[in-house]
Amino acid sequence: MTAVLRAEGLGKRYGKHWALTDCTLDIPTGHVVGLVGPNGAGKTTLLNLACGQLPPTAGGITVLGGRPGGSPAQLAKVGYVAQDTPTYAGLSVAEHLKLGARLNPGWDDALARHRIERLGLRPSSRAGKLSGGQRAQLALTLGLAKRPELLILDEPVAALDPLARREFLQGLMEAAVEQQLSVVLSSHLVSDLERVCDYLIVLVDSKVQVAGELEKLLATHHRLTGPRRDPARLPADQHVISASHTDRQSTLLVRTQAPIHDPAWTVGQISLEDLVLAYMSKPADTHRRPTLEVQR
Ligand SMILES: Nc1ncnc2c1ncn2[C@@H]1O[C@H](COP(=O)(O)OP(=O)(O)OP(=O)(O)O)[C@@H](O)[C@H]1O
Description:
Protein name: ABC transporter ATP-binding protein
CATH topology of the largest domain: Rossmann fold
Bound molecules: adenosine-5'-triphosphate
InterPro entries: AAA+_ATPase, ABC_transporter-like_ATP-bd, ABC_Transporter_VariousFunc, P-loop_NTPase
Number of helices: 9
Pfam families: ABC_tran
Helix content: 25-40%
Radius of gyration: 21 Å
Strand order of the largest sheet: 5-6-7-3-8-9
Strand content: 25-35%
CATH architecture of the largest domain: 3-Layer(aba) Sandwich
Shape: elongated
Number of domains: 2
Distance between the termini: 50 Å
Structural class: alpha/beta
Keywords: ATP-binding, Nucleotide-binding, Transport
Number of strands: 13
CATH class of the largest domain: Alpha Beta
GO molecular function: ATP binding
């Protein structure tokens, strides 16, 4: 099966600063992928590399089997809604659609018009006079009407209120199903990702910390609570992602493929938010197991 995105040792450096390092990913098609990480982690850099707006400094990346931005056919396969949902303030909604038709060979005008009508956007309204939510919907419409195989969205809902966010994500989900689209979207809002994503990438300090199908990730990560214990003494197949301790008790978030039989532990399920926060607070040195520290 063609991977929607395959990266091997991918890196990007701005001057002396590496914004993305040693990024290796293999994402199958047909997923809605959530890319999450703190400010400055390298999310926008990765998305820009994926749509061919930036060349890599190291390693390689293919998107839908081709080099990003490498040919007109490749450009037509990938839609990109950049951060801050870019639209032209002085152009009307109808003029945006005209521009979309002129720039994109696979433009689906009926889809664009139908969507604009359903959203209640007046074709004569200038983008500069639309609300943030309406502008985001216009940008999404332009991305969808291009009829891409992959749609990439960089923090598309960051500026929207909860209702507008929900409407936007619902529209995106419907389109992903109807058009059999693969989607990659970055967001800081874990609750939104929980609603729409079935694949997760956590990026911290320019490195991929974890990537995989959400269901599998949740099934292989567990919260262990029990008498205080040094995480370094856990079986080798239990990888400690985060640990906190009181005088008597330890709480660990571990990754393991195997069942946990140790009767001293109470094993609990984790949420997507637990998973993301654990990887976001993971020490940068991944080879060293966390030492026993007391948090009072
Ligand atoms: N054009 C540039 N020139 C120099 N440094 C850059 C440039 N673009 C990004 N960076 C740096 O690269 C790092 C990664 O930035 P990037 O925008 O990819 O992060 P991000 O995860 O998308 O952040 P945010 O969540 O704030 O949007 C940051 O340290 C940033 O300052």
